[in-house]
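Long-time lurker, first post.

We've been arguing in lab meeting about whether zinc ion would sit comfortably in this protein at all. Half the group thinks yes, half thinks no, and nobody has a model to point at. So I'm putting the question to the forum: if I give you the sequence and the SMILES, can you give me back a predicted structure of the complex? Inputs are below. Any interpretation is welcome too.
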Amino acid sequence: MAIRRARLGARSRDLVLVHALASALALTACGAPSPTPVAPPPAASAALTTPLPPPREDGHLPALATPLKYTLALDVDPASAGFRGTARIELDVAEPTSWLVLHARGLRVTRAQVLAQGGVFPARTSERASIGGKSPEELVVALDRAVPRGRATLEIAWEGPWDEELSGLYRVKDGDRWYAFTQFEATDARRAFPCFDEPGYKVPFDVSITTPNGLLAVANTKEASRETNGGKTTFHFKETLPLPTYLLAFAVGDFDVRELERPPAGTSSLPPIRLVTTKGKSNLGALALETTAGLTNALANWIGIPYPYEKLDIVAVPEFSAGAMENAGLITFREEILLLDPARASVRARRNQAMVVAHELAHQWFGNLVTASWWNDLWLNEGFATWMEWRIVDKWRPQYQVRFDAVVSTHGVMDLDALASARAVRQPVVSTSDAHEAFDGITYEKGAAILATIERWIGEDAFRRGVRDYLRDNAHKSVQADRLLSSLDKASGKDVSSMAASFLDHAGIPEVSVEVACEPGSRWHAELVQEPWRPLGSKAENDGGQSWTIPVCVLAQGEKKSACADMLAGAPSLVAGRGCPTFVHPNADASYYRFSLPESGFTKLASARTQLDVPGRISLLSNAWAQVRAGRLKAEAMLKLLPSFDADPSRQVIEEVGGILGAMSETLVADEGRAAFRKYVAARFAKRKKELGWLPKKEEAAGSGDETMLRHAVLRAMGDLAEDESTLREADDLARRWLADPTSVDEDTAAIAVDLASRHAGPARLAELVQAAANSKTREDRHVALRAMMGFDDAAVLTSALDTTLGEAVRANEMRYAFGAAFARRKSRPVAEAWIRAHWDELRKKLPGSLGGSLVRAASIACTKSEIDERKAFYTPRAATIEGAERPLAESLESASLCAELRAHSAAGLTRALLNAK
Ligand SMILES: [Zn+2]
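Top reply:
Settle the argument with this. Predicted structure of the protein with zinc ion, as tokens:
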């Protein structure tokens, strides 16, 4: 699944609804549906019954029977009030049992029986909660007598309501038509059909879907046949290859289907690729088809295994909670990711499309062909897909230089990883709540960063060999991560398993300190020592026992290659080289560790910046700022360091500078230092702004788009950090042009100009933006307006803008764009946070269940003790009722307390330095 950090919309479900619906069962011997009220399980004679196992502590279903195959028949009319289905689930019964336990949530079972050894075993069903569950998710099937060991078939029929939280089976109205879509990962197939909803069960599915005539059904596999009977059409699909339940998918509606007309040059053996959209939208799909074809080809080549399924449909879904979902052969995406106007799409939108498509396609091998057998190894799916999206987009469009974006992403997740409340990449997952929490930056970005570090350590060839062997040996199976690690051990001859375990099984980020000594005879050596990196005020327990196996590489002045050593857990290590270098860079490749140097070490590195490549420069800046936050480097030292990078040619380095200044502005700049800070920021970016101008030059259209993105970063810093009046005025001129005619300003410029133009604007502009959002012809234009609606400095206007999100003007799955923008700025953050508290109940109606789980992240918007206490009191009881919200809240409150510590330690010094600066 693709989810991006700072999301404000996970998924889940309303407990009341579930309880209301989990209310009936039927007991029949001959198959006629006859709903009857829930009754307690029958008390049959001891000889014929076995005891019902309680819910398991580890969150798995009791091992009474194993599914072998599903035959599913669903009746789906998106315009009706709900859906119906029947299933035949072939089972292998381990021991004689008078119980079966599987998953179902919010479904009304209307009929159930088991067939075994020529006999019929009537059944009753009831629901119960799993361990740690916040609502009933286990379906208990009570048989009137024990089924013998061996093959059996569970026949079951049910009815269900459309899910209201964009998970399970849900419907969406687009224009005047209804459509139905599914989203099953992680634990929501059980909302659509009774099943053994665990990734370890990987079996074939035979699916047929009955719809009103005139609608189309699509599913994981090709359509095998269809038949019409009265007003209904039944679509039969070919049997799937073995799949876990979470990868099953289908969609029903009056769709447009567009085929890839011509494979792009240089591609070969592609599956048939189609784009599925709601009515009238497929004209915006050419880029998505081309991107999908190019990346599928690139992936098959890198991996050395053809695309594993018979066909590939990409589906543009108008309302979607996550970003995209890798269902085997039927990948679903937020519509705005796939549907782009080739004439106007922004650089960011094109790149984002490539990254998300690459991620979901990578899953067709990592996750789909070979599946992590339980959610504690989710990183195997998601870390790999994240690592692969960087790698494969870099192969497909090297000019995008996304390999450097990967470096920024790696440094970004280190802060989350250093929190005392952070998860380990690999840790027990018991409940649905735990599974929700596992979809976070630790699983995705840290997982990817560890894989990148392993690849650097053992080399690309060995890494690729190990991955290939792993995929070939385990194709169509569900396995644990140790299979991948042992494949990498074998391919490299190194102990990847132990190295990886030191990073995967504990939260935290190591910091390596480096002391260089020059020896007589023109040699140098450096002693390396590791300890956990901790921010000031960290409550993480320093038990002294935590250590990592770290492949450390130190780049010395004048050398092309780094000197490397494997730091074994706990033991000091040495690296050495020739000469006596004037500087060393302790992590020029940006592997997954931080480093410390004295201030003079950072100064020397900054002076030698032209001898460092882009990852080395990003890592230098990120580590220096980390030293400030650990209390080992004065904040004012950053003011001396940053100007070295004013003219840096790399967009990512400039973004890093902007990011550090943004964090300083938020946390450390006191009111009396604000004017001086603005001046300091303007000195960094004004010249760059003049060179770049506002509008993309003609030649940029054919290039990498990097200059366009650099312009965005520079204008953002000038507008929001330097608060430069002329920048804001110029933005307003462009915004007026855009409001009059959105096609008169290119999408990249509009994205920054229309937003900055809101800063000093009033209620009239808000009204214009609401109108522009309603009238927008493309999703990109709509998002420009939605974000700019949150761009007002005036608290009253911003509050009115926030109020509009509760109405029809903003869809539930668009709330993330609005809140994302409101939380991004120093001035709007506190207003937005207070508004969330004031409107909590209304917000939860719009974002029910865990769809609104990320709202608790607003608690991080605090930097004093009283603010933190207030947030804690408000959000704690609320998070307790939302699946997957408790850890994000703990992380947010901890971040807020770290902000308070850093401010107390460093704000006065930085402000003084700003005031003294000439
Ligand atoms: Zn994913």
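For your lab meeting: The first strand starts at residue 24 and ends at 25. Residues 1-2, 326, 359, 363, 382, 385 surround zinc ion (CB under 6 Å). Whichever side wins, do check it experimentally.
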